[in-house]
Amino acid sequence: MKKINQLILIIILVIICNACTLSPASLAKHNPEILTAHADSLLSAHPDDAELKLAIISAKLNLAIKNNNLDEFRSVLKIDAKNASARYHIYMAEGKEHHKKGHKNAQWDAIQSFAKAATTIDTLGEPYYWMGLAYEKKDEMDFELPLEVYDKALALYLPKDIYTLVISNREALLKRKKTYENFWK
């Protein structure tokens, strides 16, 4: 019975998409859960429909961001292997996971993941903020590398909350650096 209901829903979605009464883009916006739940069936029924493919990718990305769901980001890569947004979020999640571990080797892994995220979407400063945190955690006596990446973060786009954190961390690092330098004079 459940399969019949799903099949009926898929048929309705296909009819809606074909009748153009509701575009795939508006379906992705208003009901992304249905679109993503039946993405495989819709894509196999309409493999050459670029608009449908983009709508499914958009719906999956929106849900993945909303729910912070790595599996959903990975499913986007199955549809579009070069999708920069999905790769960016995966690299950032991997970097944060390494950073949480705390030990020095994990910080190097975190820095590498954040660097990949930074090259994937090169206009965002958040990966550089996280690199700075990882550099500080890796070696609390290294002031130059964290300052360099904090400055790079500030030169790029940052959401207001992250911008405030970068400024705060940079100022605290400069204060620590000055204290260290004054101690050794």
Provide an overview of this structure.
There is one protein chain. The protein is built from 11 helices and no strands. The protein is elongated. The chain folds into 2 domains: 80 residues, no CATH class; 96 residues, Tetratricopeptide repeat domain (Serine Threonine Protein Phosphatase 5, Tetratricopeptide repeat). It is an all-alpha fold and 185 residues long.
Descriptors:
185 residues, mainly alpha, Serine Threonine Protein Phosphatase 5, Tetratricopeptide repeat, 2 domains
- Helix/strand/pairing class, anyone? mainly alpha
Q: Please give the largest β-sheet.
A: none
**Spatial gap, N to C terminus:** 80 Å
Could you name the CATH homologous superfamily of the largest domain?
A: Tetratricopeptide repeat domain
Summarize the SSE layout with pairings.
Elements: H1 2-19, H2 24-30, H3 32-37, H4 39-45, H5 50-67, H6 70-79, H7 84-101, H8 104-120, H9 126-138, H10 144-155, H11 160-183
Helix pairs in contact: 2-5, 5-6, 6-7, 7-8, 7-9, 8-9, 9-10, 10-11
